[in-house]
């Protein structure tokens, strides 16, 4: 039942909203394409879809007064903690040209009025790491402080995943050494997933920084409902996800990684055969179970997210 019909039913019942048998995906076409909704159904009795994990949203700030970020789940606030790594305080409000961070967590984390993001029961840590998501490499200084904050506080706040959302809108065919690189190495060693969008300019010979960096997964996109690669790509791309923009594909990938992590841990899956750390192993599983997508422009074959296949891979009944 759609949210509109549910609200109409609530009006007929004097304002009481009927209990939902399941959530309505915030991106229906994209979630069906990546088999996220199928994963919700098949593993509804065994997985909690993000509960107990926190996703760090490293972007250009956030309007925390929005209903999406004021929401509570069984009394637990959706926003667990907030920090401004630019100013060094606890207020991540947008300043200057910032705007993007208020919405980038919705595909991964929304749980409001019966609408769900991928890992809808997770919590988020909102971290302002720069002024605007359309950034410059010079923003590495404050982004490095944001990533250091994650390193310092990941255990206390159960941060398992980082959405490193900025893009510099350039076509990098090689890494660009900056202050964030050492932080990315440490996060990867801890098994914390860090990914970034490749960019949205149809570049075929390079991708945006910081997705261009080692130890940061680069997430590209296919057209929703169709395994046709679009937007920026290069041999560095690790995974494709259905979305209209790579910021959304990366957000979806972050939520999917939280679900796969939970499945690995609950099933005591021996992931060390797949990679040197948990984050690398999860990417290997996503790639190994993903759908092959041929790109006629770059003449490369990429892998598109199939969350159900990945979770089945680490689940005892389907291994």
Secondary-structure map:
Blueprint: H1 3-12, E1 24-25, H2 28-33, H3 36-42, E2 54-59, H4 67-70, E3 72-73, E4 76-77, E5 79-84, H5 106-109, E6 111-112, E7 115-116, E8 123-128, H6 140-157, E9 159-164, H7 180-189, E10 193-197, E11 217-222, E12 229-230, E13 239-242, H8 246-266, H9 278-289, E14 291-295, E15 300-304, H10 307-313
Parallel strand pairs: 1-7, 2-8, 2-9, 5-8, 9-10, 10-11, 11-13
Antiparallel strand pairs: 3-4, 6-7, 11-12, 14-15
Helix pairs in contact: 6-7, 9-10
What does this structure look like?
This protein is 31% helix and 19% strand. The protein is α/β, with parallel strands linked by helices.
Percentage of β-strand residues? 15-25%
| Number of E-type strands | 15
Low-confidence stretches: 1-21
Question: If you average the pLDDT, what whole number results?
Answer: 93
Summed up, what is this model?
With 319 residues, the protein is of the alpha/beta class. It contains 10 helices and 15 strands.
Descriptors:
single chain; 319 residues; alpha/beta; Rossmann fold; 8-stranded mixed beta sheet; 3-stranded mixed beta sheet; 10 helices; 15 strands; globular
